[in-house]
Design a protein that fits this description.
The protein has 15 helices and 20 strands. It is α/β, with parallel strands linked by helices.
Length: about 475
């Protein structure tokens, strides 16, 4: 036992024969709201009393000189040296916030503390002084809606970031995808090929146009749309392919775009989760006819809500700017020649986006460091498969995501997630495949997407995580894996 820990335990320990007064003094010294009751000679643990127990005793007529051993208090939970963190976590409950850890001689050697502040999120925005400065400028100058310098500035900086000629900001990533489809004249009766393993917005944006999403299975190597299965799904009605760079790993774009070119189809990259990822040296989003990004609060670059379409085609950029602004003519104000949408980004949101882009390199470096720490710590954990790393891709690991082998870890992904939650570690399951969703439910069997969805789990990936917090996640997963593998 380290010296400072022993001193802390000694500070809150006293004989079971002590008075309530002495116990209150001990509790006051320890600042944990409790005292450990021990046998003076052997130091053996015999009980635990909280300040709440004492309050109730005083209200029930006990005096300050009453023996603390006479005060009613619940039987304490006790842990043993050698128990896993998962087993110890099971001992906590609403009234139980401290669990003594005992050695073979029943002496207290450590304390397990339940801290409600201990919560490691899957994702969280990184906002600082620059974001506040730019937003304050918008407020102080009154430029808070869709007009203002930050909108144009944000579009320019993201276009440069992607190496694209044009960028059109939108109110969300879903709106960006919808606009791109509309600008490419995709509508009723058309078909668009999409991966089934993606967030539902990819398929929904197709449906908004009146077109039909056609779902394709994933490839096991990258978890993205399988290029070898695309051609079989093409019909005379097919107008576009939407590869998704899932969880920040690029899809294999060259064969996809070759198929699109050969069949006269458009290619729209859904890079909502992949800001800064690269495919064979090229920025994702800049490879197809258009690429879309999301700036939702959990994304690598965030504006709270928001999106962007990048493209090298002036005709698409011009048309999307009209469609996002209610279909208003550029030559005559308040003159509408077609149905448009209110898909504009506000200057306030763009101000946050500009500040985020100014530290994009630091954010991406941090994401890379987080992924490396997880890779190193989890590579030897039984039952865990690491995220894909194709040699031609530079992934940004938007969410560090693993696969959980249910044959090794009993009950698989969901059991691991439940055990991690007990330690304050948030996780998220993979997206359910779109072809199984009630709104689509195509009756298809897409085995790779279904297997990935059933075993995939995203771990805390917020850039504010400290190295020791990531190590805590790794150690907890390893302990749970060992425990469940033995059951």
């Amino acid at each position: 036992m380290v010296p400072h820990l022993k001193q802390r335990i000694d500070l809150i320990s006293l004989p079971a024969s002590s008075t309530i007064r002495q116990t209150m003094q001990t509790i006051d010294k320890g600042a944990l709201g409790l005292a450990l009751l021990i046998e003076p000679k052997t130091k053996r643990f015999v009980g635990l009393v909280t300040d709440g127990d004492i309050r109730r005793a005083l209200l029930n007529g006990y005096g300050l000189e009453s023996q603390i051993s006479d005060v009613p208090h619940p039987e304490p939970q006790k842990a043993r040296v050698g128990m896993t963190s998962c087993q110890i976590a099971d001992l906590f409950s609403e009234p139980v916030r401290v669990v003594p850890l005992l050695d073979d001689n029943d002496r207290v050697v450590d304390l397990a503390l339940f801290d409600q502040r201990m919560h490691l999120p899957v994702a969280a925005p990184s906002l600082g002084d620059k974001e506040l400065q730019y937003v304050s400028e918008c407020v102080l100058t009154g430029w808070v809606s869709s007009a203002g310098k930050f909108v144009r500035r944000f579009e320019k900086v993201l276009a440069d970031f992607c190496g694209s000629d044009y960028a059109v900001s939108t109110s969300s990533g879903t709106a960006a995808l919808h606009l791109a489809l509309l600008a490419l004249e995709i509508g009723v009766g058309d078909e668009v090929i999409v991966p089934s393993l993606t967030f539902i917005a990819t398929a929904n944006a197709v449906t908004y146009t009146g077109a039909k999403p056609v779902f394709i299975d994933s490839e096991p190597e990258t978890w993205n749309i399988d290029p070898s299965k695309i051609e079989k799904a093409i019909t005379p009605r097919t107008k576009a392919i939407i590869p998704v760079h899932l969880y920040g790993h690029p899809a294999d774009m060259d064969p996809i775009m070759e198929i699109a070119s050969r069949h006269g189809l458009s290619g729209i990259e859904d890079a909502a989760e992949a800001h800064g990822a690269r495919y064979r040296g090229r920025s994702v989003g800049s490879i197809g006819d258009a690429g879309i990004f999301s700036f939702y609060g959990n994304k690598i670059i965030t504006t709270g809500e928001g999106g962007m379409v990048v493209t090298d085609r002036a005709d698409l950029a011009d048309r999307m700017r009209i469609l996002r602004n209610h279909g208003m003519s550029t030559d005559r104000r308040y003159w509408h020649t077609e149905i448009g949408y209110n898909y504009r980004l506000t200057n306030l949101q763009a101000a946050v986006g500009v500040a985020q882009m100014e530290k994009a390199a630091d954010i991406l470096r941090t994401k890379k460091r987080i992924a490396q720490l997880y890779d190193e710590g989890l590579e030897s954990v039984n039952g865990i498969s690491l995220p894909p790393r194709a040699p031609w891709a530079s992934s940004v690991c938007w969410l560090y995501s693993i696969l959980v082998n249910g044959n090794v870890i009993g009950d698989g992904r969901d059991r691991l997630a439940a055990e991690l939650a007990k330690s304050g570690i948030e996780t998220r399951p993979f997206f359910p495949p779109a072809h199984l969703q009630p709104i689509y439910n195509t009756g298809q069997t897409l085995p790779v997407a279904e297997r990935l969805a059933q075993s995939g789990l995203s771990l805390p990936s917020a850039i504010g995580l400290r190295d020791e917090q990531i190590k805590h996640v790794i150690d907890t997963i390893a302990a749970i894996s060992d425990s469940l593998a033995q059951q």
